[in-house]
Specification:
single chain; mainly alpha; about 0% strand
């Protein structure tokens, strides 16, 4: 009985804090910035994939495939069609020249995420604007590197491991194991991405000064269970929303061709709330 009361009280306090910090309003704000940042980030990644000779199309297909696993199907198709149109309309030189603008737009979404996390942590931003922007750009590059590394490992790590396993005559067993290991590897990179965002996007140095936290307490944030909860919650709401649209997709009937955009914005909204 006591555990039920504690659980109910805890959930009530979480809800009250979410209302006080306007989490759902900030999630709507983030969905707008995520929409602006998504396509520049994907264009940047696809251009980056071009430096991998012979692997660009495979990396791109795998990226969009994993994105489609958590994104609503109509929104996923919208993203694929838009990327195809933009890539076809631009030449290689123009696409490379536009990378600076793409990085700036993508980092704006990261910057907005940092400001929302500041509100969640109840701290005021004390860092100069140029430092915040540089951190946002660095996180954008880190996110791109993590995504690229994860895709390279998933695509080519299996071949290397299969070759090594064949030497000890365990090739078939490794093939089965690798199909299972692909998802934990992808989740590990998602976890690292969330941990980097939680650690560097908000002004935690201000919170450390305010709470007078020791250096060991500050480092312990890397092991925060909140990162695990955020990743799990994001996966649950993403897959749940995808199932809802699969069985009760009324947005196309209500909004016509805008239904895919509405679905994408709602998915971004749920993603912002989960984070």
């Amino acid at each position: 009985m006591a555990s039920r009361l504690i659980s109910k009280d805890f959930l009530w306090r979480v809800w009250a804090r979410a209302e006080a910090d306007e989490i759902f309003g900030r999630s709507a704000q983030l969905s707008y910035y995520f929409l602006l940042a998504l396509f520049p980030l994907l264009l940047f990644l696809i251009t980056l994939f071009g430096y991998f000779d012979g692997a660009s199309s495979h990396l791109r297909h795998k990226l969009l495939s994993y994105l489609g696993d958590v994104m609503p199907s109509s929104a996923s198709q919208l993203v694929v069609d838009t990327i195809d149109q933009v890539t076809a309309a631009r030449g290689g030189g123009k696409l490379s020249f536009g990378l600076l603008a793409a990085i700036w737009a993508a980092s704006s979404g990261m910057n907005a995420l940092g400001q929302s996390l500041n509100a969640a942590y109840d701290v005021r931003e004390t860092r100069p604007w140029w430092k915040v922007r540089l951190i946002s750009i660095a996180l954008t590059f880190a996110l791109s590197t993590l995504i690229t590394s994860a895709l390279v490992i998933v695509l080519y790590g299996g071949r290397l491991g299969h070759s090594l396993a064949a030497l000890i005559h365990e090739g078939r067993a490794f093939g089965v194991a690798w199909k299972i290991l692909q998802w934990p590897i992808a989740l590990a990179f998602v976890f690292i991405t969330f941990a980097l965002v939680y650690h560097f996007a908000p002004d935690l140095a201000a919170k450390r000064r305010e709470r007078r936290l020791s250096a060991s307490d500050y480092r312990r944030r890397w092991l925060s269970p909140g990162v695990l909860v955020a990743v799990a919650l994001w996966l649950v709401v993403s897959l749940g929303f995808r199932l809802y649209l699969h069985f009760f997709n009324s947005y196309s009937a209500m909004y016509g061709s805008l239904g895919a955009v509405i679905s994408l914005m709602l998915w971004f909204y749920l993603t912002g709330a989960a984070i």
